[in-house]
Design a protein that fits this description.
With 187 residues, the chain is of the alpha/beta class. It has a single domain (8-150), classed as Rossmann fold (3-Layer(aba) Sandwich). It contains seven helices and five strands; from the N terminus they run αβαααβαβαββα. It binds adenosine-5'-triphosphate (ATP) and magnesium ion. Adenosine-5'-triphosphate is lined by residues 2, 4-10, 38, 156.
Length: 187
């Protein structure tokens, strides 16, 4: 969590090895990371259809369930034959998520994944993330979405990162109380 421009996306890019960092940043031995960027340069192949995009990554048993999975992410009927280049922002995000969730990753890093999503899509994504068994690093300004997902909060604040071992609700409640106390003191 943190205000715009505090460095959340930058830290994530550092973790993903996309930018040079001053210190060291290493992923653990067996870590396989999947990444959803906030401003992706090219998220999906423009000429592949929704079905093909998922078909490309799905391996083994799960292959028989591609249509079912796409349906759960609200691609059904003709929608699965639409090409990447014609998808809306929300459709693009949903499809990128299906792909990520089908890949054998044990670390998911999502930088503001809900930006283009409507309420129902957010619920679908949240359910899928609750089922995800690996580690999730999530940047979001969306309190409702974070609720129940985050067990730890990293607060980006005036060029520092403060780690809080508490749920997002506990964190926000405490921040609120702190602000109220500060206001009272300054009176
Ligand atoms: N390549 C770059 N060169 C110079 N400054 C940069 C570069 N990339 C990011 N910045 C700056 O670093 C700061 C942190 O950016 P970052 O994208 O990490 O913020 P953020 O916390 O993710 O913000 P938001 O909530 O808006 O997504 C910003 O002021 C940004 O302008
Ligand atoms: Mg950002």
């Amino acid at each position: 969590m943190g205000r715009n421009g505090e460095g959340k996306s930058t830290l994530i890019k550092a973790i993903m090895g996309e930018i040079e960092v001053g210190g060291t940043c290493e992923l653990g031995h067996n870590v396989r990371a999947g990444y959803f960027a906030q401003n992706p340069a090219s998220l999906l192949a423009p000429e592949l259809t929704v079905f093909q995009t998922v078909d490309e990554v799905a391996k083994g048993e799960i292959r028989s369930q591609i249509k079912h999975i796409l349906g759960a992410f609200m691609f059904s009927g003709e929608a699965i034959d639409k090409k990447g280049k014609f998808l809306s922002g929300g459709e693009r995000t949903r499809l990128a998520m299906v792909r990520l969730l089908l890949e054998p990753v044990n670390l998911l890093i999502l930088d503001e994944p809900t930006n283009h999503l409507d309420m129902r899509s957010k619920d679908v994504l949240k359910e899928a993330l609750l089922d995800f068994e690996g580690t999730l690093i999530l940047v979001s300004h969306d309190r409702d979405f974070l609720q129940g997902l985050a067990r730890k909060v990293f607060e980006f604040k005036v060029q520092r990162v403060i780690e809080h071992s508490e749920t997002i609700d506990a964190f926000l409640e405490r921040s609120r109380l702190q602000r109220i106390t500060e206001l009272n003191l300054s009176k």
